[in-house]
Design goal:
The structure is a homodimer. The first copy, chain A, is 32% helix and 26% strand. Chain A is an alpha/beta fold. In chain A, helix 6 (129-136) runs parallel beside helix 10 (191-205).
Chain lengths: 392, 392
C-alpha cells in the first residue's frame, strides 16, 4: 500500500472538507503538503504555510505524487491535470465540465504517462456511479440508464413542488446551503447534467460524446402551471439525464425535465439527493442513490478515489470496444408534454401523434409523440416561455 | 487480461443461467470445460460430454483455473472450495451458509495459496454490496447498515401485505417462481439473512461473527393481526438485517421483522427485490437496490465476479484492522412491538419502558423499550405464537 503526498488545488467547500477529513484520518497515511489557491488574502481555517498561489510549488515538487484538483475554472483545471500527469503524478478531479469536454486527451495522457486519473466525485457526489459502471457492470449489457444527477436543480424542483416556493427564492436558498455552484446557469440550464451524462456514457458504453451535442433543456422555463399539472396527475417533475438503447448498439441520450410517477424509484429522490436507475439484461433494474452535492458527500467521493490510489487503482475503460453510437439518436420517438402561453402559436405538425390538447385563458398544453430530432429543430429549447417535459 | 477455463459445480437455476450467459458472450474469452452434477440421469439443456459426477474431473484438471461453485450442500461446497484453492485455482461461490460459517478458514486459504475467492452473489443477488463495501466505502466510517437481504421472505411479506394472501399459499408460489431455496426454513426463519449479515459485517468492519450467535427471528410467526396493525399505521413489515454503531467501535447486529414507514427507502423495496441502506459519516445515507433472487440476477453477480477475475481482482479485506466488536451488543436498547394470543401471559417486566399495551378478545400487543439481551433471553424467539417486530 502506498503512502501518498498530496498537492491540493482549491480550498472551497469541498477542498476544505477533504483537508479536514484527512487530518482526522492519519491511518490513511496520506498528507496534504501544499494547497494552491487564487486569493492569498482570504482568511482560511488551516496553517498559513500550507498555502501558495504558485501552481509550480505543487506541480514541480517531486515529493508530491498525487494532485487533487478541486477548482471551478475548467481551463485552469485542465492545465493542472495535464501538467500533473505529464510529471508522472496521479490525479483526482471533480471537475465534470473539464473532464467531459476533454475525455479524449485525458485518456491519452493516462496511457502515455501510465498514471491514474480518477473522478468519482464528478458524477452524483457520494454515489459510486463511475466505479460501479467501470467495475461491476462491465460485463452486463446495459439497455438504459436514467437518473437525477444534479443536486441543485433537484433541490429547487423539490422545494418548488413541496412548498410552492418560487424558483428565484429557492435558487438563492440552494446557493446559501452550498447546493448550487458559483455559476447557477450550469445547473439550472441542465449543462452540468450533460457533462455527467457524458461521463456515464463513456464508462457505460465506451463512447465519447460532445456534451454540447446532447439534447438539453433545463428547469428555468418550468411554470407553476406545469407543477399543478404534475400534482393533479400524482407525478413530480425531475430533471432527468438518460440514455436508452434504441436498437442494437444504437442509443439515445438527453437531459430534459420529466414527469415521474409514484412507481419510479426516482419519485422519492428529493432535495440534494441524486439517484440513478441502471437497466441491464441480466440484473434487471438496479438503483443507486445518495447525496449528490454538499461538502462532505463530495469529499467522501474524493476520499474514496484517494484511498483507491493507495492501492494503485486506475480506470480500465473496458467498454471502449463495444461500438455504441448515438447517430440515429434523433430518430428516436419520445412522449412529450409541451406547455406555452395561451396566445402563442405552436406548430404541432412535427408531432407524429397528438394525445391531448388543452388551451385555457393563460396557458395551454399538448401531449404527443415526437422524435428527438424534431424537438432539437424546434425553438422550444431556447424559448423560456415554453416548458418541455417528457412523459415516459 | 486472462482467459479463464471454468469448472462448474451445480447445474440448477443459477448454474444453468451462467452456462447460457457465457455461451452468448464469447467476447469474455471464458469457457466452461466441465460441469459436475450429482444426478447423471436428469435431462439437461447442454451437451452430454460436459457433465461429470466426479469432482476430481474438475479439481484435478490443471487446465481449469476457475471453479464456480453453485451447489446447495454447504459441506460439499466447502470441500470443493478448499480443494480448488489448495490446487491454486481461483473460486467463485454463491453459498452464503458455507462462506459465513467458514470465513476464518476461507480467508486463510486465500492468503496461503495466493488465490482469489469471490462471492458477490452470496449477498443480495445482483446488487453489488460486497464490492462496494470492499472497494468504495473502505475509507468511510460506517455507522449503520440495514436492509432487506432475502428475496424469498420479502416476496412472501409483500404478497401477504398487498394481496392479503396466507403465508403457506404465498410460500408455495415463491418456490414455484424460484424465489425460495430448496429448504425454505433457511429463508423464512431468517437464517439465510444472518449469513448475509455476517458477510456484510465482515466486509464493512472486518469482524468475523458466528452467524448462529446473531439475534434472529424470521417471519413464520407473523400474524394477520400484525399485518393489520402495520396497515393502520401506514407501515409495512419487512425482514430487516441490521447493524448499528452503539458507541465507539461497539456495534449491534440482528435479523428481525421490522415496521418500515413511508419515509424509509426500504418501504418500496417489494417482492424479490433487495435493498440496503448504508449510513456513513461523510456520505450520509446511501441506498442500493435491485433484484435479490432469481436465475439471471444471481447469474449477473456471478458473472461480475468471473469478469473481475479476468483482471486478477481479489478482496483485500481492508477493514480487518478496525477492531469493531459486538460484545456489548446485548446491552443495546431497541423499540419493540410484541403481539401474542390474548390468553397468553407475557412477562413485561423485562421492558425498561412500556409505551402501549392492548388486549382484545383474540390477540394482544405491547410496545416498549427493551435491550437485545432481554429479547435473547425471552422465549418469544422460539414461540411461534408470538410476533417480535422492531419499531425503529
Amino acid at each position: 500500500m502506498k503512502t501518498l503526498t498530496i498537492g491540493l488545488f482549491g480550498f472551497g467547500v469541498v477542498g476544505e472538507g477533504i483537508y479536514r477529513v484527512l487530518l482526522e484520518r492519519p491511518e490513511l497515511g496520506t498528507r496534504i503538503k501544499r494547497i494552491c489557491i487564487r486569493n492569498p488574502e482570504k482568511n482560511r481555517n488551516a496553517p498559513k504555510e500550507l498555502f501558495t498561489t504558485l501552481a509550480g510549488d505543487i506541480l514541480d515538487d517531486p515529493e508530491i505524487d498525487l494532485v487533487v484538483e478541486l477548482i471551478d475554472d475548467a481551463d485552469a483545471a485542465l492545465r493542472i491535470c495535464r501538467k500533473a500527469m505529464q510529471s508522472g503524478k496521479v490525479v483526482v478531479s471533480a471537475n465534470k465540465k473539464m473532464i467531459a469536454e476533454n475525455l479524449t486527451e485525458l485518456v491519452a495522457l493516462q496511457t502515455k504517462h501510465n498514471v491514474s486519473f480518477l473522478y468519482e466525485a464528478a458524477v452524483c457526489g457520494s454515489v459510486p456511479i463511475i466505479r460501479n459502471l467501470e467495475e461491476y457492470f462491465d460485463n452486463d449489457w446495459l439497455h438504459s440508464i436514467s437518473g437525477i444527477v444534479n443536486g441543485s436543480t433537484n433541490y429547487i424542483l423539490t422545494q418548488m413542488s413541496l412548498n410552492g416556493h418560487a424558483y428565484d427564492e429557492v435558487l438563492t436558498k440552494a446557493q446559501e446551503l452550498g447546493f448550487a455552484e458559483s455559476d447557477p446557469s450550469l445547473d439550472v440550464e441542465g449543462i452540468d447534467a450533460t457533462y455527467k451524462l457524458c461521463l456515464i456514457l463513456f464508462h457505460a458504453f465506451g463512447v465519447i460524446v460532445d456534451p454540447h451535442s446532447i439534447l438539453r433543456k433545463g428547469i428555468t422555463s418550468l411554470h407553476p402551471f406545469d407543477m399543478q399539472y404534475a400534482h393533479e396527475k400524482g407525478k413530480r417533475i425531475k430533471l432527468i439525464a438518460r440514455t436508452n438503447r434504441v436498437n442494437g448498439t444504437q442509443y439515445s441520450a438527453a437531459v430534459l425535465p420529466g414527469f415521474v410517477g409514484h412507481s419510479s424509484k426516482l419519485f422519492d429522490v428529493n432535495n440534494e439527493y441524486n439517484g440513478l436507475l441502471i437497466g441491464s439484461s441480466l440484473a434487471d433494474e438496479q438503483f443507486l442513490s445518495g447525496k449528490g452535492a454538499g461538502r462532505y458527500p463530495t469529499a467522501s467521493a474524493v476520499l474514496s478515489d484517494i484511498s483507491a490510489l493507495r492501492y494503485g487503482y486506475k480506470y480500465e475503460y473496458r467498454k471502449h470496444s463495444i461500438g455504441v453510437d448515438l447517430s440515429s439518436h434523433d430518430k428516436t420517438t419520445v412522449e412529450l408534454y409541451l406547455s406555452y402561453p395561451a396566445r402563442k402559436k405552436i406548430d404541432d405538425s412535427v408531432f407524429s401523434q397528438i394525445h391531448e390538447s388543452y388551451r385555457g385563458t393563460d396557458r395551454g398544453y399538448l401531449t404527443g409523440s415526437i422524435t428527438i430530432g424534431h424537438i432539437r429543430e424546434s425553438d422550444w429549447l431556447k424559448d423560456n416561455t415554453v416548458s418541455v417535459i417528457t412523459l415516459n
